[in-house]
Amino acid sequence: MAFTTSGTQAVQLGMLGALNARRRVGRHLIVSAVEHSSVLHVAEQFERDGGRVTTVGVDLYGRVSAEEFAAALRPDTALACLQSANHEVGTVQPVDEAAAACRAARVPLLVDAAQSVGRVPLPGGWSILTASAHKWGGPPGVGLLVVRKGTRWKTPLPEDEREGRRVPGFENVPAISAAAAALEAFSGESAADGPRLSALIDHMRSRIPQTILDVEIVGDPVRRLPHLLTFSCLYVEGEAIITELDRLGFEVSSGSSCTADTLRPSHVLEAMGVITHGNVRVSLPRGTNAADLDRFLAVLPDAVTRLRRSAGVTSTEGTPR
């Protein structure tokens, strides 16, 4: 195990190190269409450098087919990447099944577990695992790169005597200690609080379509992370919803979870084939209660209606279900 400066750096080093170590095997990489941008950017660079990349698509829930993922494996496959759960819509991926196929093909599997660590049990079978401390309430600037014993991995950087020759430079020991303490506390709380947050998300999934016209709830309703909800509203910009809800005291996100500051259409939603317009992502923090949720659900319909009217949309067909 090695510590990095972020989850993004952990992913990049994990991928590049595995690809570097297995150049003689081949120059083929497998990723899913809904991976974090850190994975996709490495894949783009790998392809520019002459490698071949197979991107496995997803269904309407954002889930990869384990069979299609296995079918993408080839004799020259150097590495496969599959997230444990989607950063944006919360859908849990079939990592155990994909890992079994990779193991049979003798191909290492990198799992980006940033959204899962501390919240849900980690899948097994991975060869390389990455995570980010700030996702579980630890300090920013601490990433985790775990290379399972027996996995071929060679640093793409000049070697350094520290961090098992994987990450150069000194470790930020105070931040790492804080990250470990935060993970211990967060994991204990999540075991008890996860089902409660999941029930709140279920209530939102049910209530929002009943009170707002032309809205689509996305992501798997069952096999999902307990704290995430993403929905899309027609006839209104996601940025406008963010601003209006912020004025009302609620902090939400729009666009892709990894590039929200660009406000570009979400590559995840595009891959799923669902509405990308008016996208809103809600992440429930620890301590969220039913009263908080009721107030959010009370102000959301009026906020969307006001924004639609300001955009010149005075009515939409149908009635809320």
From TrEMBL:
Originating organism: Actinocorallia longicatena
Cofactor(s) required for function per UniProt: pyridoxal 5'-phosphate
Domain (Aminotransferase class V): residue spans on this chain: 3-296
Keyword Membrane applies: no
Signal peptide limits: none
Protein name: Aminotransferase class V domain-containing protein
Coiled-coil annotated spans: none
Pfam families: Aminotran_5
